[in-house]
Design brief:
single chain; about 775 residues; alpha+beta; 9-stranded antiparallel sheet; 20 helices; 33 strands
Amino acid sequence: MKFISKIANRFIYIIFLLFPWPVFAQNLVKYVQPMAGTAIATTASALKHGQAADTRFANTIPAVAAPFAMTQWTPETESGETKCVPPYYYKNSLFNGLRGSHWLSGSCTQDYGSFTIMPITGKLTTANYSAAFKHVDELSSPYLYSINLNQYKVNAAVTSTERCGMMQFTMQQADSLYLLIKANSDYHEGFVKVDQQKGEISGYNPAHRIYQGWGKSAGFSGFFVIRFERSLGKTGTFAGDKIFIADSIKNDAGTGIYAGFKLNKGEKLTIRIGTSFTSLEGARKNLQAEMPGFDFHKMVESSRLKWEKALGQINISTKNEQDKRIFYTSFYHAMQHPRLFNDVDGRYPRFAGDYQIEQLSGGNYYDDFSMWDIYRAQLPLFEILNPSLINNLAKSLILKGKQGGWMPVFPCWNSYTSEMIGDHTASVISSAYLKGITDLDAKEAYQILRHNAFELPANRADYVEGKGRRALDSYLKYRYIPLEDSVRDAFHKMEQVSRTMEYAYDDYALAQFAKALKKSADYTTLTKRAKYYANVFDATSGFVRGKHADGTWISPFDPDKKATYITEGTARQYTFYVPQDVPGLAKLMGGAKKLEQSLDSLFEKGEYWHGNEPGHQIPFMYNYTPSPWKTQAAVRKILATEYSDGPGGLGGNDDAGQMSAWYLFAAMGFYPVNPVSGEYLLCSPLFDRIAITLQNGKKFEIICHKPGPRSMYIRSVKLNGKMMPNNFIRYSDISNGGKLDIYLNDQPGNNWAVKPLNQPKGM
């Protein structure tokens, strides 16, 4: 880790030498390490529970992009748009170019609509041109990436805005510079064109669906338009190693355009790139609006200031520099997605459409919701930090439901996917409405969510396409999903117990929305359904368990072995997924003390798997037992062992920022076990002081009072100067601004919040 820190410090020093801007007061961006998560994880839980090497990669990329941007700009070491293979791996040593990417950060999905620009010098070659590099040749930050390509004697750098990128190539010797511009279509449908008169290169790469509807057109393309600071020199097209004298090429393997320039030592070539999901004209408009000139230093500074402002919403005080690096790197990762999808003029591709364009009346439209993951902590984080963003996200989801006829459960690449399980848009939209941070049409939103919860498509073809909840008919008939229903029309087949439990949570979320709208009949029905998790709990074993249609349990049964009726885990791990009703789960187990013992057993056996999201609430569940101090101990251990500041510092797929958001919450001392409730379970903060600047201008401060550096057990808590006996705070406590004083001891506190009266009530 010392080696990584030295390199990082060297990078910052080089940045300030190359780009002499005024020093910003906070300078938080220096702590961000975009390389984190680009190497295989080495944490204990990842090594034990990861099924294969790809599940142990965080699958993040060293992205240069504004927060929640349309396009991420990344070095490319892996060509193509292959599922579960990100554009960049730290282990690789060959550089293929700078990519305009739509990779879902930290995911095991695929890139789409991307393109790559590779600089080479000397003789033109369009095959086997990758350049060897070492990590000391790279400089990586959220607002600037650069690399010295010693093989070609050229430096390549990129910075960005929300929809555009700017690249600069600096010659280290006089030579011919060629840019190879490829549309990375794995379906051989890419198109690129050069217009010498306009001095422009443009192209597109059609997007395709995966999961439900795999391989079908997603109904839009990734479009790009490139403008050059100087007149275009020699140009042509290529397909693999074949070179042509033509101004365009499409529908072939490895297609691209080359553009050549004669440059002297020290000369720079700067290019501007607009991107869009609607059209080439949309890309041109975005470029003109966001990046009208060629001042590279100015764009770098503008991008840097955006990140300083975004990161500056949370200020932490600690002497531990490594913890700062982990914290602000996590913050950066939590601001990659959802993805901005509309042009500057409000045009965007219709959801699940066929190259149809829609027009926004206001706000922004977003996509790439890794919904099974981010409803837990990543979106709740921005309910606090950026309610206006959440408003746009919720309204984007409603638009998808209206345009497609059904609310998508995992909307990515602007299409239905039915990826993963559950129906967690109900949680996101209900939570936002109940917290008063949306101006959506509540009745319309409720009806779209209700459609998913109560009905299935009459047309089987629609269901197969991914519309509607999977296995809803079985869930409603049996009040759980029996093993006889294999859920065959889904990418994740079976997983019946996990589906039952997640639908129960979603029904709870929708019930709260119904209650707020005074829909008493729906509220009563959905509240009953929110208890269906109990129907897959086997009291004799103390775990959830696969169940047949006749009510008998599957046998044999081992709670610590992965099973087809559990999603990506074991029965022991999934038993604790009842975020809406932890006291109810405790009652099934035999009381709060039994819940505590079950939690103890999970941790003692080493069965807690932090790299997978269904367990993220587990360490905080001791707050529902007579020993809340065990939450404080468990969380501190996870913070220390599951996160680090090196390339392998994340213990599993970051999944669009959920793993990172968990760290942010836990390190600040509170976590949303049940996001809809607006309650946050307390633990001991990692830092001496946390100051959160809210969008409304108010501040929420957390002050840690501790007698020594190892103090981590809560003795008492004050909220705005008054003693607070509860082990949770509410959304209003934070959003109204104020101060939370947490007093810590070296030894566990046996009196603070040990009674049910001072703990969340569940249902």
